[in-house]
Protein backbone atom coordinates (compact mmCIF):
# COMPACT_ATOMS: atom_id res chain seq x y z
CA UNK A 1 0.00 0.00 0.00
CA UNK A 2 2.87 2.37 0.80
CA UNK A 3 4.36 1.87 -2.67
CA UNK A 4 0.98 2.49 -4.31
CA UNK A 5 0.50 5.62 -2.21
CA UNK A 6 3.94 6.94 -3.14
CA UNK A 7 3.31 6.21 -6.82
CA UNK A 8 0.01 8.09 -6.78
CA UNK A 9 1.64 10.98 -4.92
CA UNK A 10 4.45 11.15 -7.48
CA UNK A 11 2.00 11.15 -10.39
CA UNK A 12 -0.04 13.91 -8.78
CA UNK A 13 3.11 15.92 -8.08
CA UNK A 14 4.32 15.74 -11.68
CA UNK A 15 0.96 16.31 -13.38
CA UNK A 16 -1.08 18.48 -11.00
CA UNK A 17 0.12 21.83 -12.39
CA UNK A 18 -0.36 20.91 -16.08
CA UNK A 19 -3.85 19.67 -15.18
CA UNK A 20 -4.49 22.89 -13.28
CA UNK A 21 -3.53 24.88 -16.37
CA UNK A 22 -5.99 22.85 -18.42
CA UNK A 23 -8.72 23.54 -15.85
CA UNK A 24 -7.92 27.26 -15.99
CA UNK A 25 -8.27 27.20 -19.79
CA UNK A 26 -11.72 25.63 -19.51
CA UNK A 27 -12.67 28.11 -16.78
CA UNK A 28 -11.72 30.89 -19.20
CA UNK A 29 -14.15 29.46 -21.74
CA UNK A 30 -16.89 29.19 -19.09
CA UNK A 31 -16.30 32.85 -18.18
CA UNK A 32 -16.83 33.83 -21.82
CA UNK A 33 -20.04 31.80 -22.00
CA UNK A 34 -21.32 33.56 -18.87
CA UNK A 35 -20.36 36.94 -20.31
CA UNK A 36 -22.16 36.09 -23.54
CA UNK A 37 -25.31 35.00 -21.73
CA UNK A 38 -25.47 37.75 -19.10
CA UNK A 39 -24.85 40.54 -21.60
CA UNK A 40 -26.82 38.91 -24.42
CA UNK A 41 -23.83 39.36 -26.70
CA UNK A 42 -24.57 38.34 -30.26
CA UNK A 43 -21.60 40.02 -31.90
CA UNK A 44 -18.94 38.11 -33.80
CA UNK A 45 -16.45 36.61 -31.28
CA UNK A 46 -13.63 38.36 -33.13
CA UNK A 47 -15.13 41.84 -32.63
CA UNK A 48 -14.08 44.49 -30.11
CA UNK A 49 -17.33 43.94 -28.18
CA UNK A 50 -15.53 41.13 -26.40
CA UNK A 51 -12.62 43.30 -25.22
CA UNK A 52 -13.97 43.60 -21.68
CA UNK A 53 -14.09 39.82 -21.32
CA UNK A 54 -10.69 39.50 -22.99
CA UNK A 55 -9.21 41.91 -20.49
CA UNK A 56 -10.65 39.98 -17.54
CA UNK A 57 -9.15 36.73 -18.82
CA UNK A 58 -5.84 38.44 -19.58
CA UNK A 59 -5.66 39.85 -16.04
CA UNK A 60 -6.27 36.41 -14.57
CA UNK A 61 -3.50 34.77 -16.63
CA UNK A 62 -1.14 37.67 -15.98
CA UNK A 63 -1.61 37.41 -12.21
CA UNK A 64 -1.03 33.67 -12.40
CA UNK A 65 2.09 34.26 -14.51
CA UNK A 66 3.50 36.76 -12.03
CA UNK A 67 2.84 34.57 -9.00
CA UNK A 68 3.86 31.17 -10.34
CA UNK A 69 6.69 32.05 -12.71
CA UNK A 70 7.68 35.63 -11.87
CA UNK A 71 6.93 36.24 -15.53
CA UNK A 72 8.71 39.01 -17.44
CA UNK A 73 8.66 40.21 -21.05
CA UNK A 74 11.64 41.97 -22.64
CA UNK A 75 11.79 43.54 -26.07
CA UNK A 76 8.15 44.55 -26.57
CA UNK A 77 9.46 47.61 -28.39
CA UNK A 78 10.60 45.26 -31.16
CA UNK A 79 7.00 44.45 -32.07
CA UNK A 80 5.93 46.73 -34.94
CA UNK A 81 2.78 48.82 -34.70
CA UNK A 82 1.62 47.35 -37.99
CA UNK A 83 1.42 43.75 -39.24
CA UNK A 84 4.12 41.17 -38.70
CA UNK A 85 4.71 37.48 -38.08
CA UNK A 86 5.85 36.51 -34.60
CA UNK A 87 7.79 33.23 -34.74
CA UNK A 88 8.47 31.47 -31.44
CA UNK A 89 10.01 28.39 -29.84
CA UNK A 90 7.33 25.90 -28.72
CA UNK A 91 7.70 24.63 -25.16
CA UNK A 92 6.35 21.30 -23.93
CA UNK A 93 3.33 23.20 -22.60
CA UNK A 94 3.03 26.64 -24.24
CA UNK A 95 1.70 28.33 -21.13
CA UNK A 96 4.43 30.95 -21.60
CA UNK A 97 2.74 31.91 -24.85
CA UNK A 98 -0.58 32.40 -23.03
CA UNK A 99 1.26 34.65 -20.58
CA UNK A 100 2.70 36.65 -23.46
CA UNK A 101 -0.69 37.08 -25.16
CA UNK A 102 -2.18 38.31 -21.89
CA UNK A 103 0.63 40.76 -21.18
CA UNK A 104 0.55 42.11 -24.74
CA UNK A 105 -3.21 42.71 -24.56
CA UNK A 106 -2.95 44.44 -21.19
CA UNK A 107 0.01 46.60 -22.21
CA UNK A 108 -0.92 47.42 -25.81
CA UNK A 109 -4.62 46.52 -26.01
CA UNK A 110 -3.60 44.42 -28.99
CA UNK A 111 -4.58 40.91 -29.98
CA UNK A 112 -2.07 38.60 -31.58
CA UNK A 113 -3.76 36.12 -33.91
CA UNK A 114 -2.45 32.64 -33.13
CA UNK A 115 -1.90 29.79 -35.57
CA UNK A 116 -2.60 26.46 -33.83
CA UNK A 117 -2.38 22.79 -34.73
CA UNK A 118 -5.56 21.20 -36.09
CA UNK A 119 -5.98 18.97 -33.02
CA UNK A 120 -6.62 22.07 -30.88
CA UNK A 121 -9.86 22.70 -32.76
CA UNK A 122 -11.03 19.17 -31.99
CA UNK A 123 -10.80 19.70 -28.24
CA UNK A 124 -14.34 19.76 -26.80
CA UNK A 125 -15.74 22.82 -25.07
CA UNK A 126 -13.24 25.45 -26.23
CA UNK A 127 -14.87 26.81 -29.38
CA UNK A 128 -15.83 30.22 -27.99
CA UNK A 129 -12.48 30.77 -26.28
CA UNK A 130 -10.58 29.99 -29.48
CA UNK A 131 -12.78 32.34 -31.49
CA UNK A 132 -12.61 35.22 -29.01
CA UNK A 133 -8.83 34.92 -28.62
CA UNK A 134 -8.48 34.74 -32.41
CA UNK A 135 -6.87 31.30 -32.65
CA UNK A 136 -6.97 29.96 -36.20
CA UNK A 137 -5.85 26.91 -38.22
CA UNK A 138 -3.54 29.20 -40.14
CA UNK A 139 -4.10 28.51 -43.78
CA UNK A 140 -2.09 30.69 -46.14
CA UNK A 141 -5.21 32.65 -47.09
CA UNK A 142 -6.23 33.30 -43.47
CA UNK A 143 -2.76 34.52 -42.55
CA UNK A 144 -2.51 36.83 -45.56
CA UNK A 145 -5.93 38.36 -44.86
CA UNK A 146 -5.02 38.93 -41.20
CA UNK A 147 -1.69 40.55 -42.12
CA UNK A 148 -3.25 42.75 -44.79
CA UNK A 149 -5.73 43.93 -42.14
CA UNK A 150 -2.81 45.06 -39.99
CA UNK A 151 -2.80 42.23 -37.45
CA UNK A 152 0.09 40.54 -35.71
CA UNK A 153 0.15 36.80 -36.44
CA UNK A 154 2.10 34.24 -34.41
CA UNK A 155 3.41 30.91 -35.66
CA UNK A 156 5.57 28.20 -34.10
CA UNK A 157 7.10 26.28 -37.04
CA UNK A 158 8.14 23.45 -34.69
CA UNK A 159 4.59 23.04 -33.40
CA UNK A 160 3.60 19.88 -31.56
CA UNK A 161 6.68 18.00 -32.78
CA UNK A 162 8.94 20.57 -31.12
CA UNK A 163 6.78 20.53 -28.00
CA UNK A 164 7.07 16.75 -27.64
CA UNK A 165 10.58 15.99 -28.81
CA UNK A 166 12.76 19.00 -28.13
CA UNK A 167 14.42 18.98 -24.71
CA UNK A 168 16.64 20.93 -22.34
CA UNK A 169 19.08 21.48 -25.22
CA UNK A 170 16.41 23.74 -26.80
CA UNK A 171 16.87 22.28 -30.26
CA UNK A 172 14.59 23.80 -32.90
CA UNK A 173 12.65 21.10 -34.75
CA UNK A 174 11.26 22.84 -37.81
CA UNK A 175 12.04 20.24 -40.44
CA UNK A 176 11.32 21.76 -43.85
CA UNK A 177 8.62 24.11 -42.64
CA UNK A 178 9.18 27.42 -44.40
CA UNK A 179 5.58 28.38 -45.15
CA UNK A 180 5.67 31.23 -42.63
CA UNK A 181 8.58 32.76 -44.56
CA UNK A 182 6.68 32.60 -47.83
CA UNK A 183 3.67 34.25 -46.19
CA UNK A 184 5.93 37.02 -44.84
CA UNK A 185 7.34 37.57 -48.33
CA UNK A 186 3.90 37.60 -49.93
CA UNK A 187 2.48 39.99 -47.33
CA UNK A 188 5.67 42.11 -47.27
CA UNK A 189 5.85 42.08 -43.48
CA UNK A 190 8.70 41.59 -40.99
CA UNK A 191 9.31 38.46 -38.94
CA UNK A 192 9.85 38.88 -35.20
CA UNK A 193 11.66 36.07 -33.30
CA UNK A 194 10.58 35.16 -29.76
CA UNK A 195 11.64 32.68 -27.10
CA UNK A 196 10.97 32.13 -23.37
CA UNK A 197 13.85 31.42 -21.02
CA UNK A 198 13.48 28.23 -18.91
CA UNK A 199 10.27 27.11 -20.64
CA UNK A 200 11.71 23.57 -20.83
CA UNK A 201 12.56 23.60 -17.14
CA UNK A 202 9.01 24.56 -16.27
CA UNK A 203 7.43 21.71 -18.23
CA UNK A 204 9.01 18.65 -19.78
CA UNK A 205 7.99 15.60 -21.77
CA UNK A 206 9.17 12.01 -21.81
CA UNK A 207 12.57 11.46 -23.38
CA UNK A 208 12.23 10.63 -27.04
CA UNK A 209 11.95 6.97 -27.85
CA UNK A 210 11.60 5.58 -31.35
CA UNK A 211 8.18 4.07 -30.72
CA UNK A 212 6.89 7.33 -29.20
CA UNK A 213 8.09 9.28 -32.23
CA UNK A 214 6.51 6.77 -34.60
CA UNK A 215 3.28 6.91 -32.62
CA UNK A 216 3.16 10.68 -32.98
CA UNK A 217 4.03 10.65 -36.69
CA UNK A 218 1.22 8.15 -37.31
CA UNK A 219 -1.44 9.96 -35.27
CA UNK A 220 -0.21 13.58 -35.22
CA UNK A 221 -1.65 13.85 -31.72
CA UNK A 222 0.13 14.83 -28.46
CA UNK A 223 -0.69 11.48 -26.92
CA UNK A 224 1.62 11.75 -23.91
CA UNK A 225 1.15 14.81 -21.68
CA UNK A 226 3.81 17.18 -20.33
CA UNK A 227 4.76 16.98 -16.69
CA UNK A 228 6.32 19.32 -14.15
CA UNK A 229 5.01 22.81 -13.63
CA UNK A 230 7.71 23.89 -11.19
CA UNK A 231 7.69 27.64 -10.41
CA UNK A 232 10.84 28.40 -12.37
CA UNK A 233 11.62 31.87 -13.69
CA UNK A 234 10.07 32.65 -17.09
CA UNK A 235 11.38 35.52 -19.21
CA UNK A 236 10.10 36.02 -22.74
CA UNK A 237 12.57 37.71 -25.08
CA UNK A 238 11.43 39.36 -28.30
CA UNK A 239 14.22 39.88 -30.80
CA UNK A 240 14.71 42.59 -33.40
CA UNK A 241 12.49 42.24 -36.48
CA UNK A 242 13.85 40.67 -39.66
CA UNK A 243 12.61 43.24 -42.19
CA UNK A 244 11.06 42.66 -45.56
CA UNK A 245 13.18 44.18 -48.33
CA UNK A 246 10.96 46.78 -50.06
CA UNK A 247 13.44 47.24 -52.91
CA UNK A 248 12.86 43.84 -54.48
CA UNK A 249 10.52 43.84 -57.48
CA UNK A 250 7.71 41.39 -58.11
CA UNK A 251 9.70 39.82 -60.93
CA UNK A 252 12.82 39.44 -58.81
CA UNK A 253 10.77 37.99 -55.98
CA UNK A 254 9.16 35.50 -58.36
CA UNK A 255 12.57 34.43 -59.64
CA UNK A 256 14.08 34.18 -56.19
CA UNK A 257 11.05 32.90 -54.29
CA UNK A 258 12.60 29.53 -53.42
CA UNK A 259 15.96 31.03 -52.52
CA UNK A 260 14.34 33.93 -50.73
CA UNK A 261 12.04 31.60 -48.84
CA UNK A 262 15.00 29.54 -47.64
CA UNK A 263 17.01 32.62 -46.70
CA UNK A 264 14.14 34.20 -44.75
CA UNK A 265 13.53 30.92 -42.93
CA UNK A 266 17.23 30.51 -42.17
CA UNK A 267 17.48 34.07 -40.84
CA UNK A 268 14.50 33.50 -38.55
CA UNK A 269 15.85 30.21 -37.23
CA UNK A 270 19.23 31.82 -36.62
CA UNK A 271 17.59 34.75 -34.81
CA UNK A 272 15.75 32.44 -32.40
CA UNK A 273 18.87 30.33 -31.86
CA UNK A 274 20.74 33.55 -31.05
CA UNK A 275 18.14 34.48 -28.42
CA UNK A 276 18.44 31.01 -26.90
CA UNK A 277 22.25 31.12 -26.89
CA UNK A 278 22.25 34.57 -25.28
CA UNK A 279 19.70 33.99 -22.54
CA UNK A 280 19.50 30.26 -21.85
CA UNK A 281 21.75 27.94 -19.85
CA UNK A 282 22.40 24.91 -22.09
CA UNK A 283 21.56 22.26 -21.12
CA UNK A 284 18.74 23.74 -19.10
CA UNK A 285 18.93 23.34 -15.33
CA UNK A 286 15.81 23.16 -13.18
CA UNK A 287 17.74 24.21 -10.07
CA UNK A 288 19.24 27.27 -11.77
CA UNK A 289 15.86 28.17 -13.20
CA UNK A 290 14.31 27.99 -9.72
CA UNK A 291 17.10 30.10 -8.20
CA UNK A 292 16.52 32.78 -10.83
CA UNK A 293 13.25 33.57 -9.05
CA UNK A 294 15.44 35.24 -6.41
CA UNK A 295 17.68 37.02 -8.94
CA UNK A 296 16.12 40.39 -9.69
CA UNK A 297 18.77 41.42 -12.19
CA UNK A 298 17.68 41.63 -15.79
CA UNK A 299 19.91 39.71 -18.18
UniProtKB/TrEMBL annotation:
Any stretches that span the bilayer, and where are they? 6-27
Q: What keywords does the record list, in alphabetical order? A: Membrane, Transmembrane, Transmembrane helix
GO MF assignments = acyltransferase activity
Full protein name: TMM68 protein
- Phospholipid/glycerol acyltransferase domain ranges (all copies): 72-195
Read off the PANTHER family from this record.
PHOSPHOLIPID_GLYCEROL ACYLTRANSFERASE DOMAIN-CONTAINING PROTEIN (PTHR22753:SF22), TRANSMEMBRANE PROTEIN 68 (PTHR22753)
| One Gene Ontology term, aspect cellular component | membrane
- What InterPro entries does its record include? Plipid/glycerol_acylTrfase
Q: Which Pfam families match?
A: Acyltransferase
Asked if Transit peptide is a keyword of the record, the answer is: no
Q: What SUPFAM superfamilies would the database entry show?
A: Glycerol-3-phosphate (1)-acyltransferase
- Gene that encodes it: Tmem68_1
